[in-house]
Specification:
Distance between the termini: 40 Å
Main location: membrane
Pfam family, one: AA_permease_2
Strand order of the largest sheet: 5-4-3-6-7
Strand content: 5-15%
CATH superfamily of the largest domain: Amino acid/polyamine transporter I
Protein name: Amino acid/polyamine/organocation transporter, APC superfamily (TC 2.A.3)
Helix content: 55-70%
Membrane topology: Multi-pass membrane protein
GO molecular function: transmembrane transporter activity
Radius of gyration: 33 Å
């Protein structure tokens, strides 16, 4: 029959499954076919909103500037190619999984590495928030009646992702592989079908919003000169959301099967090629179908009920134009897009815990983030990420357009610092080699220098164009996270310094003074006295506090009646406090003899059920909490397990069972001396 402890573990086992032995960690390593959907779902899914973000900005000036969309898409694809090539150098040079953080730490120093870490941690939180919010948008595009439950749906999806990842990397990888591949296949089929329909048939390719007209915002009605350049750069910066998540593979190299670096580099190349093809295809179809999408739906003239009816996403309008409204193809694309956007957050659920573990190992984050859970995953990191993502979703009401403004600052900050760090890395390595190997490193350095130059320019563009639209929140959050990590590191450093053994660490205390706290003459008190006497202290004091004269007189009478061979010391407490008089008594002992060790024995009985604790005043807990801060004082808890606290298996075991001594069910040597 299961014990109480087994029943308490039941909810955990239902969510996580059976625990995994530590020696099976190698079995969680991923082949490329699973690594691709796990680590690349974020950049692959970005085609669902990257094109949309470009159109949102361009339509601010009306339909006249939509001709810029293909040129901006080409620029984004070229940037994606450069970044992918740059990160292929990173996975070969730093296969330990630190990614940009490790590159910055080894080539720029602590300051740059912590800036990268703060940027990546922020980016991972935003990845979850944006991906889930955008996935919710696509669900609502298929089922508009769910619009009023947007936030609840998004929060529920984050909880699902956290639970799936807590079950382990391999299990979540299998769960996420199928939707990712279904999405890729669906988008590629849609692109090919759309191109055939547009170029080789007489069938029309017209979006639902093609008939709408857009009235330019007053401030964008007469763009020219510097204002026009700034406007175009803002649209380009919005399109750069297509690059989010590219760095996740560099951070997750340890999760690949050997040869780790080569498999990671191959997966990175596959991800870049597929993402570029899908983004370019969706953008082209959106322009062919004359898709209109505005930040505020009521800016679209001809859109009836814009106040109450949700605007269809760009990907929904394109699939509608290609496959037809209400068709199987339309619902397939919507379902696959919603799934992959939700699962794209899995990139962060893999990257954030790994980075948190590295930071914890370097003592910049709490040690708990370096601890693996039952399923050999960094459970605390997963839960922390889910919590912050939920906060962002609730704060921004699961609005993907508002959340995206905060998204890419951290991405390109880590890109930029990491790429310039790689330039330094190759410069240092080239001094140690000659010939063909040196030429290979020179090519890698050129690639990283090109990547660093371009991402630096893009980062400046993003900061300038996105700052007032929400990016300032991330720019403020990153220094805060940086300072927090410095404080954590300072704490761990100080603790380590104070714990170094000193020259007198083996010096014994001059005397040991045992103090047994007494409330009543009962079994826990007698057991504590017996244990205290068994330690052979130099002095033994039985101590009670007088908070009620009648109770104290009854206690003294019982003390004499049981003929206890230890004098009872009574402390007066006119204000009916217990903790303060005990603390003052202990401090007086220490003041009179600073080298004397005081050992306080605290009797405590253990109840059978957690809710029974409410019926007791927990004075032992409060005393321990205060005494632990007193120098030269040790606290020894003497538990007395009540009948209801025994496990069934112990009561059925014949003879003396473990724990019987402290329950008073077996004789001990200390008891004979009373």
């Amino acid at each position: 029959m299961p014990s109480l402890s087994d029943l308490g573990q039941l909810p955990k086992r239902l969510v996580l499954g059976r625990p995994v032995r530590s020696d099976r960690a190698g079995e969680s390593l991923l082949p490329k076919r699973l690594a691709l959907p796990i680590f690349a779902s974020d950049p692959l899914s970005s085609v669902a909103y990257a094109t949309q973000e470009i159109l949102i900005v361009l339509t601010l000036a009306g339909s006249a500037f939509l001709f810029l969309a293909p040129w901006l898409a080409v620029a984004v694809v070229l940037l994606l190619v450069v970044v992918v090539l740059s990160y292929r150098q990173v996975v070969h040079a730093y296969p330990s999984g630190g990614g940009d953080y490790e590159v910055a730490a080894k080539n720029h120093g602590r300051f740059a590495s912590l800036v990268v870490a703060s940027a990546l941690l922020t980016d991972y939180v935003m990845t979850v928030a944006v991906s889930v919010a955008s996935g919710t948008d696509n669900i609502i595009s298929a089922f508009p009646q769910l619009a009023e439950h947007r936030v609840l749906i998004a929060v529920g999806l984050v909880a699902f992702l956290a639970a799936a990842n807590l079950r382990g990397v391999r299990e979540s990888g299998k769960s996420f592989a199928v939707p990712t591949y279904l999405f890729v296949a669906g988008i590629l089929v849609m692109v090919v079908t759309g191109f055939i329909k547009y170029f080789f048939t007489d069938a029309s390719l017209v979006a639902q919003s093609a008939a709408y007209t857009i009235t330019p915002e007053p401030e964008y009605s007469n763009l020219a000169g510097v204002a026009l350049i700034f406007f175009v750069l803002r649209a380009f910066a919005s399109g750069c959301t297509a690059l989010t998540g590219v760095e996740a593979i560099a951070n997750g190299v340890p999760a690949f099967r050997p040869p780790k670096s080569r498999n990671a580099a191959t997966t990175l190349a596959l991800m870049g090629g597929i993402a570029a093809a899908m983004f370019a295809g969706v953008t082209a179809l959106a322009l062919f179908a004359d898709v209109k999408y505005a930040e505020f739906p009521c800016d679209l003239e001809g859109f009836a009920n814009c106040d109450t009816q949700p605007q269809l996403t760009v990907i929904a309008q394109v699939s509608q134009a290609v496959f037809g409204d209400g068709s199987i193809g339309f619902f397939y694309i919507q379902a696959a897009t919603a799934l992959v956007l939700i699962l794209a957050a899995n990139t962060a659920f893999n990257g954030f815990p790994l980075l948190g573990s590295v930071l914890a190992q370097d003592r910049y984050m709490p040690k708990q983030l370096h601890t693996r859970g039952d399923k050999l995953v960094y459970s605390n990191g997963i839960l922390l990420l889910a919590g912050f993502a939920v906060v962002m979703i609730v704060a921004f009401e699961a609005d993907s357009t508002r959340l995206i403004q905060l998204y890419i600052v951290g991405v390109f900050t880590s890109f930029t610092i990491g790429q310039w760090g790689m330039v330094r890395h190759w410069k240092r390595e080239m001094k140690l080699v000659e010939g063909a190997e040196r030429a290979r490193m020179r090519r890698s350095q050129v690639i990283n220098a090109l990547g660093g130059s371009i991402t630096t320019i893009v980062l400046v563009i993003i900061v300038l164009t996105k700052f007032t639209r929400g990016a300032w929140i991330v720019i403020v959050a990153m220094p805060f996270i940086y300072l927090l990590m410095r404080q954590i590191n300072r704490h761990y450093t100080q603790v380590a310094e104070q714990l170094v053994p000193s020259g007198d660490s083996r010096t014994l205390p001059s005397k040991v003074h045992a103090v047994v706290l007494v409330s009543k003459v009962h079994k826990p008190t007698l057991r504590a006295l017996a244990f205290a006497r068994a330690t052979r202290p130099d002095q033994l004091t039985a101590l009670t506090v007088n908070v009620d004269d009648a109770d104290t007189r009854a206690l003294q009478a019982d003390w004499d009646r049981y003929d206890i061979p230890v004098p009872l010391t009574v402390l007066e407490s006119p204000y009916r406090e217990i903790t303060r008089p005990v603390l003052e008594f202990v401090k007086d002992i220490r003041r009179d003899s600073p080298r004397e060790l005081v050992v306080v024995f605290v009797p405590q009985y253990v109840v059978g059920h957690w809710f029974e604790n409410v019926l007791h005043n927990q004075s032992a807990l409060r005393l321990r909490a205060r005494l632990q801060f007193q120098p030269g004082v040790m606290i020894t808890t003497v538990p007395w397990q009540l009948e209801g606290s025994r496990d069934r298996e112990d009561t059925e075991r014949p003879g003396v069972a473990p724990g019987d001594l402290r329950r008073g069910l077996a004789e001990d040597p200390g008891a004979r001396e009373q």
